[in-house]
Design brief:
about 325 residues, mainly beta, SH3 type barrels, Coagulation Factor XIII, Chain A, domain 1, five-stranded antiparallel beta sheet, elongated
Length: about 325
């Protein structure tokens, strides 16, 4: 008689009973762990580290199926963001302050020239002139004479005297020191020059047309001068016409030669208006030679052209005075 081993019992459907029990246990455990993980996630507990739970298999006769269950990782907390860096503008470095220069003090002892003025070597017309000052200019007064009729000025490095008849002092005259007058110059014997023959005015049509030379004279009685020495003259001219007369040179003219002192005429629109009268004094410098000086007016091109012209363009308005330069 043959003995057979009993077969393991099976369910009615053909699945071993042990396997069914194992699957049910694993399902319960997995559901519990899933519920725990969900509760931990919704509770915000960030300190819970993820763990992996491995269920030891239960011994079954039909084999063990292991289902690993992992809990979900908790949400991570973001690190705080640092505020953006801002550029820092450095304060400007201090700069050296340059001190302003002290204000200059203008001289207070000013002599205002009102009319063409001779600057003489002493307080009187018997002293020879050493130069001249034009109206509208100023000179610093450094003294006066005892009568306060003459002022002492510094004139190109030397002492000069100006009459109070042609100038006005802006300060206190009594505050100026009294300066002793230099010795009166002695007259020097000079050779009597030959009598100059007067040259009559030329271009009488222009003269009769309105221009009139009222006067022309040398300020010194001398008729001999050194080379390039100042020869001072004075003139008066009047436009008696009804229209303006433009010009490029007005002053002393050496008749017949290319020398002239243009006291007026350097401006672009110089002219003598109707009825206008002009009085002026100036000086001329000449090389060696003998000359006939007269009052003249020229309207030839420009001032340089008039100065270099011997006669063209010139109207002579006075008798001439002969001088010798050597």
């Amino acid at each position: 008689m043959t003995q057979t081993n009993p077969s393991p019992s099976r369910s009615s459907g053909g699945i071993p009973v042990g396997a069914v029990i194992g699957i049910a246990v694993l399902a319960l455990v997995g559901g519990a762990m899933l519920t725990y993980a969900l509760l931990s996630a919704f509770s915000g507990n960030n300190d819970v580290q993820p763990t992996t739970v491995v269920q030891n298999p239960l011994p079954t006769s039909g084999g063990v199926v292991v289902i690993p269950t992992a809990t979900g990782a908790p949400p991570t907390q973001e690190a705080p963001t640092a505020p953006p860096a801002t550029d820092t503008v450095a304060a400007p470095a201090p700069t050296d302050t340059v001190a302003a220069p002290p204000p200059t003090t203008a001289p207070t002892n000013l002599l205002n020239i009102l009319q063409p003025a001779n600057v003489r070597s002493g307080p009187g017309i018997n002293y020879p002139p050493i130069g001249g000052l034009q109206p509208g200019t100023t000179a610093e007064a450094i003294g006066r004479d005892a009568s306060a009729q003459w002022y002492v000025v510094s004139y190109f490095g030397q002492q000069g005297w100006v009459s109070n008849q042609v100038a006005q002092f802006s300060g206190d005259t009594n505050a100026l020191p009294v300066v002793a007058a230099p010795p009166t110059p002695r007259p020097t014997a000079t050779a009597v020059p030959p009598t100059a023959t007067a040259v009559p005015p030329t271009n009488t049509q222009a003269v009769s047309g309105g221009l009139q030379g009222n006067s022309f004279a040398l300020e010194s009685s001398a008729r001999e001068y050194g080379v390039n020495q100042d020869i001072w003259f004075k003139f008066t001219i009047t436009n008696t016409g009804t229209t303006a007369f433009p010009y490029k040179c007005l002053g002393a003219k050496a008749v017949g030669v290319s020398f002239a002192q243009c006291s007026w005429g350097n401006g672009p629109n110089d002219q003598l208006g109707p009825g206008q009268s002009l009085t002026w004094n100036d000086h001329i410098n000449l090389p060696a030679g003998t000359y006939n000086l007269a009052l003249g007016i020229c309207n030839l091109g420009d001032t340089a052209s008039c100065r270099n012209s011997a006669s063209s363009g010139w109207i002579i308005l006075s008798a001439s005075i002969q001088v010798t330069v050597k």
